[in-house]
Amino acid sequence: MFFSFKAMFHLKKYLAGRKDDDPALFVTERRPYRRLSKRGFQREIKLIAIRAGIRKNVHPHVMRHTMATLTLNNGADLVAVQELLGHANPGTTQIYARLSSERKREQYKKHLVQ
């Protein structure tokens, strides 16, 4: 798995501030501390979105979809994004390959206009 320096900084800060000995990476905020459930992750993402003033329905899969789309739109190779997402079939990854109008224009000029 890959982390930016900023993500690594915040992950280390989170781990250093934990007051439990649970082996799970993410745990509940209250005792008894236990592994954060799928629903717990969804709730945390929703709370972050609300604090950020985002009114759309935000959940972990939206974040995954956004990362894949932005990565592809910024020029990443489809196979590389497929590997990052853990997809066995490239067709599954192509769902995320929706290019913005600007990216379409850029690719047209780069590859088709002589």
Could you explain how this protein is built, in words?
This is Tyrosine recombinase XerC. InterPro entries: DNA_brk_join_enz, Integrase-like_cat_sf, Integrase_catalytic, Tyrosine_recombinase_XerCD. It holds the Pfam family Phage_integrase. 57% of the residues lie in helices and 0% in strands. The protein has six helices and no strands. The model has no long low-confidence stretch (mean pLDDT 88).
Task: Describe the SSE topology.
Blueprint: H1 5-17, H2 38-51, H3 60-73, H4 78-85, H5 90-94, H6 101-111
Write a concise synopsis of the structure shown.
By secondary structure, the chain is mainly α.
Number of helices: 6
Number of strands: 0
Class per helix and strand makeup:
mainly alpha
Largest pleated sheet: none
- Contiguous low-pLDDT stretches (5 residues minimum) are none
Radius of gyration: 18 Å
Order of helices and strands: HHHHHH
Residue share in β-strands: under 5%
Helix content: 55-70%
Compute the separation of the termini in Å. Answer: 40 Å
What is the overall shape?
Answer: elongated
Overall mean confidence score, pLDDT:
88
Pfam families: Phage_integrase (PF00589)
Domain Tyr recombinase: 1-109
Subcellular location: Cytoplasm
GO molecular function: DNA binding
